[in-house]
Structure formats: C-alpha cells, structure tokens
Fold each of these.
Amino acid sequence: MKMVKSIKDKNEQAARHQLIEELFYDFHSSRRQVYWTNFVRGIFFGLGTLIGGTIIVAIAVWVLSQFTNIFPSTGDYIKTITNTIQK
C-alpha cells in the first residue's frame, strides 16, 4: 500500500514537472528570447524602483516640511534636512 502511494506521488510530480516544462517552452521558444525578456524586465523593474523611491522620498520631505511649525523643537532639524535635499 505504501509503495503504491509512493509510485502514484512520483508519477503526479513527474506529470506536473512535464507540464511546467511544456508551458515554459510554449512561451519561450529560445534561450535568447528568455534572456532578452528578463533583461528588459530587469531594466523596467529598476527604473520603476528608482521612480517610486524618488516619489516616496519627495512626499516624505514634503510631510516633514509641514511639521516645522507644529513641532518647534525639531523644526530646525527638519529645515536642515529639507534644505539639504533641495540643494
């Protein structure tokens, strides 16, 4: 009984592996295409990360600059950070 279950599990695993390989080769007929796709994807991922990070830092600086009047004790520090980033 244990041996039958083991054989069945191995057959299912092999079938899944074969299906994944077929799907991969259906979408990507050559290694060159895979490398090119991953290269372009990497460039866009890096560019998106850079733009997104810039937007988040800009929003954070803007929010900090809004708190300069509310918290006078940290206002000078926040103004220094804001001036440094703007330069």
Note: Residues 2-86 form one domain.
Amino acid sequence: MQVTIGRYDYSLDPKNRLVVPGRYREALLAEKGRHFIMAVGLDRCIWLFLPSQWEAFLEDSKTSTRDMKGEKARAVKRHIFSSAIEAELDEQGRILVPQHLKDHAGLKKDVVVSGAGNKAEIWDSKSWESYSRKQAGPSFESMAQDLDL
C-alpha cells in the first residue's frame, strides 16, 4: 500500500474539478487503478484514497467495528459509505468533486490536498490554515515534547 505524503495547493475550477497531485496520479497508475475513492472525512475534509488504501480502510473498518454494535456503528458506516464515490481522472489529471462532498468540506475555490499517510485529505484552504494553527500545530508540539523529539 502506498503512503500518501505532501501538501499541495490548488484551486477548484468553475466545474468543481480538482487537479490531483502528480505523485498521487503516479501511485494510481502503479496500482493499475482507474479511479480514486472520495468520501466524507473528519474535521470537515474529504478523504481521497488510492484503491489499495481504500481496501485497507475497509479491512480496518471491519476489524475496528467488529465489537461495535448498534445504532452508532451503523450511523458511522452509513455516513462514510453513502458519501463515497469513485473519482475517475480526466485527461488533464483532474477529478470532479461532487457537490455533497464540496458542501461537507466547505470548499470554496482555494484548496489544500494534504497527505495523511493512509489517504490524502482535501481541505478548504482557510479551514486547513485554521485547523493547522489551532489543532495540528499544538498537538504536534505537545506530542513531540512527550516523545522527546
């Protein structure tokens, strides 16, 4: 399975198409994949998976929800899987961001595609900056100190 890294700044075009970073397109070709999987993500982002990452996510979700029963587990699964779509690349290396995912992430024009290890995340640029400043940066500092990095 590929590891997804890096930060890339892009803009949505007027038709809600987004350029996929070259490194991710190359990884898709290496897997002989035909599309990415997009789904709602946490913290108001969109998750973007390579096919191998999506398969691993499915396996992990089976394991992690095996002991979860009831309405909450069903709601989480329904929310993620009902939002998921297959996003095919066009000839210019772009994918179409459907309106329901655009709304979920509050995407305007400027977006950040951020590697998150087992997936990429698509953020509205202003939301990403706010999240980085308020949550990710302080969490990193605290954890780095705890780990004596």
Note: The mean pLDDT is 89.
Amino acid sequence: MNGSRERSARPPIKVVHVISGLGQGGAETMLYKLLGALDRQCFETQVISLLDYGVLGPRIQALGISVFALGMRPGIPDPRGILKLARLLRLLKPDLVQTWMYHADLAGGIAARLAGTPRLVWNIRQSDLDPRRAKRSTRAAVRAAAWLSRWLPDHILCCSERARDIHAALGYRTDRLEVIPNGFDLHAFRPDAHARAMLRAELSVAPSTPLIGLVARFDPQKDHAGFLQAAAALAEQNPQCAFLLCGTGVTWDNPALAGPIRAAGIAGQCHLLGPRGDMPAINAALDIGVCASAYGEGFPNSVGEAMACGVPCVVTDVGDSATIVGDTGHVVPPRDPSALTVALAELLRLDPATRQALGTAAQRRIAQHYALERIAERYTDCYLRLIYP
C-alpha cells in the first residue's frame, strides 16, 4: 500500500513505446495488453510505429493512447527515418523510451539518444536466429544492436530465459539483461463451455471429436509442414480427430498450405480459419494445443493462451516453450514430426478426465506465473527503478 501511495503522489512518468510495426504478432499483442494493464495514474503513454498503424493501431487508440506511424520502409531504418523519429521524441519529451524488436531497438535507441531522452529500455522478443531463414537486415540489426548495447540502453528486457542466454552469447551487455515474460488476461482466456460449443457448431465439429489446434501465422518459423506431417500420421491412427489452424496466411487460398493438406489426404479433417479476432473462443474449443515452431520463438503467446483456457499443449523445445508448459503437457524436439505425432497420440489416449486434469493444471500454471497483472507490475517496477534509482 505504501508503494501505491508513493506512486500516486508523483507526476505520471511519460513513456513512449517505439515498435517496428503494429500488426497482430506476438510482440505487438503483448504491447497492446501491457498498455491496457499499466496504471494510468503512474504512466502517461504514447506509441510510435516505425511502419504503419497496422491492425493494432486503432485498438491502441481506442484505449485513449496516442499512436504515431512514421511510414518507414521495412528493413534497416535509414538515417532520415531515424532523424524523423528523433524530432518526434523531442516534441513528446518522454522520461523513458521503451523499444520493441530489433529494428526498433536500433532506430529507437539512436533516436532517443539524439533527442536527449533520459532513459532507454530495449525489448528483445526472439530467441535464436536461423541464418537460413532470418532476413539479412534482421541479422545486421542484431549485430549492430549487440555492439551498441554497451552504450545505448539503460536496460534490456527479454521475453524469455532462452532469449537472454542467446543474446548474451551474441555480445549483448549482460549486466543490463532482465527477463520479463509475456502475460495473459485470465478474464478473457479461460475455459468456456458455451464458447466451445458455439465454435464447434460453426465448424460442424461434434462435441466428442478430438480437436487439435495450431494458432500461428503462415511462416517457415512456425513449421506448418512439420505439423501437417504429424497430423497426417495421427489421422491414420485416429480418423476421428480434427485439426484447427488459424493465423495470417492460413487459408485455403494459400497453395503452399492447402496443397500439402490435400496431398496428405486430410483436407476433410482440417479447418483453416485465417486470422481471427476471437482467440479466447478458438482456444476454448480445443482439446490439445500445439506449438510446432522450428526456431526463433521467444515466448509463444499461443501456448499461454491455450493453457489459460484449460487446454494441455504439445510444444517443440524452442524458446521458453518447455518452461511455460512444465509438466502439464509434452515437449518434443523441433523439426521432428514423428516425435510430435507420438506426443499427440499419447495425449489423445488419455481418458477425458485425465486430459481435463492436465488442462486444469495448465490453467493453474499460467495463473501462478504469467497472469497479466503480475507481468504489468514487473514492467512497472522496472520503469520505476530506472526513473527513481
């Protein structure tokens, strides 16, 4: 209580969040959730997108928070864009700038120092970078940021333990690295029998049909190909199961996804929903959640959201997925469809009561460690430590 009274007696801390873009990705979604959870009496917040307003820009504005979009081109920001950002920061006069993702860390870090911002915090959202897949501009931004981390940021937040360890090895300044994981709104994401029934009715999936879900944009990082191999093998063992896939690019109009599904002979069991705005209902309808990512994950939101809805998960050992799941699901090596098939089959063989008990344990684990209020408080403490050392 004393800490709350001390905070209310101080003027609000002006925080500007600088992010690469405002699409519906994991980092962007976490920023949106954090903005809604932070104490408005303690913080006066604004957001700058290096690109455009994206999907989340209007939703952030609906929270009463100003959003600026600079219209930069994707990739390494050019000097003119950095100077434009610095001019805007001089006008806004924040006490602290929080940047999100590599390109914003780099551009926002330089611009914040040019603008004379008192405090700068970076936010790392990825774990490993697969050199075969990561863009050249992203790899260049990481190398530059590792070198500049000795001077630019006052603090560096990582969304996972794995991300901290990997970036320390890449040369990031270790004494400024701190882990604050993603948080989840347990009022929105929770078991919901009505939502489960409605979603299954929409898909014409019977209440007793095992429904396995992969919530991820279509991207090599997410390894839809590996998941589909596992799904095809699982369908041979259990022809009654169904598969729900949703996310950007996850539609029958995408030949790179629809082709392999039809070739595997499981088109009749797959539901491709594209991007959805009703993720609590999507997760509540599942029996098993899957994160099949091959590389690059820091802290996958899809796993925490499914678990918060009482859904046990099978995940690949990428980023902090294994830590999130703990003993409430199964962990398999990445790029190993056979292991994924075995783990899914093991969960499907459980009787409904045992599988539900696993889901309840998963829900409890998220509530204990990753509730949004708890995570917002950790961001608050970090900012206060920097402003009032």
Note: The first helix runs from residue 2 to 9.
Amino acid sequence: MTDTNLDALLGSAYDDPGCDEAGELMDAYCELVSRGERVTAQYDEFLTHMNNCAACREDMEGLLAALRDQPEEGSR
C-alpha cells in the first residue's frame, strides 16, 4: 500500500481547508516546488486537500507541468 493510499484510508492529522483556500496557495506552492525549494509546514493542510480532491490535484499537476515547460529566465 502506498503512503497516499494509506493517508486516504486513515485520514490526515491536518484539516482539509477546501478548494477555495487550497486554490489560494496553489501558485505559491507550485512556484516553490518548481524552484526545488523546501516546502514548509504552512502547506500541510494544502497537501491534505490535494490528497483528498482529485480536481484540485489535477489543476496542481497541470500548473507544475506548465512551470516545468517554461524556458528558464535569461535563456530566451
């Protein structure tokens, strides 16, 4: 069983803030991840929501893919 499946089965220690609040953090979270920076505890509830909501997770994965495909600054 994967960690994600186990979390879904057992639940999370963090509250799920819902789509609206998670959406407000999505850009900042994706920017951190795309730059390879450490994700802090302030995103724990956001990540709980991403585990619980397939629609938001799909949006996040699309944004991460778009950021990966962007040319680096100065290489244009």
Note: The chain has a mean pLDDT of 85.
